[in-house]
Amino acid sequence: MTLNKSKLNKFLMLKLPSAWICGVRVSEIEENTCKVTVKHKWINQNPFKSMYFAVQAMAAELSTGALVMGKIRNSNNKISMLVAQNRAQFTKKATGKISFYCYDGHLIDEAINKTLETGEGQTFWMKSTGMNSTGQQVAVFEFEWTIKAK
Asked: Which InterPro entries does the record match to this protein (predicted)?
């Protein structure tokens, strides 16, 4: 069973309610790409009249993590996943509707194969780029994921 945006948004509402309340939503997911959107509102603003950085981080992490979850599910193996570290760069105020794009799903397959072969944990970095509705970059997040066969 593959993950789709409806299942992921239901998961978000039940398991990550703070992200759900702030308006984070999966809008597209395919095998190697994911798009997560969030709109700047009163509930997710900072004192500078833009989106709070932590809300952007939730959306960016979900765009990478949804791909990891999907690949693990499709492997039919018990594999744990965890973010080990992250980096962020903010390039413009995040106002309006922000979309976070991750195109790094292809990186997960090799890590899953290695952890299943060796039983050792594997790490890999995935990037998510936040764009506003006019196509301007507002932020770039990178997440180091760790996975390990249970």
From this structure: DUF4442 (IPR027961), HotDog_dom_sf (IPR029069)
Phi then psi for residue 30, to 5 deg, are -130, -175
Q: What is the DSSP letter of 109?
A: H
Crossing angle for the helix pair 53-75 and 5-15, to the nearest 10 degrees: 120
Strand residue runs (E) in the chain? 25-29, 34-39, 79-90, 97-102, 122-131, 137-149
Task: Give the mean pLDDT per block of 10 residues along the chain (150 residues).
Answer: 86 95 97 98 96 98 98 96 98 98 97 97 98 98 97
147 DSSP β-pair partners:
81, 122
Q: What is the pLDDT of residue 36?
A: 98
Q: CA-to-CA distance for 146 and 86, rounded, in angstroms?
A: 12
Q: In this structure, what DSSP letter does residue 140 have?
A: E
Give the per-residue pLDDT at 124: 98
The Cα–Cα gap between 127 and 105 comes to 10
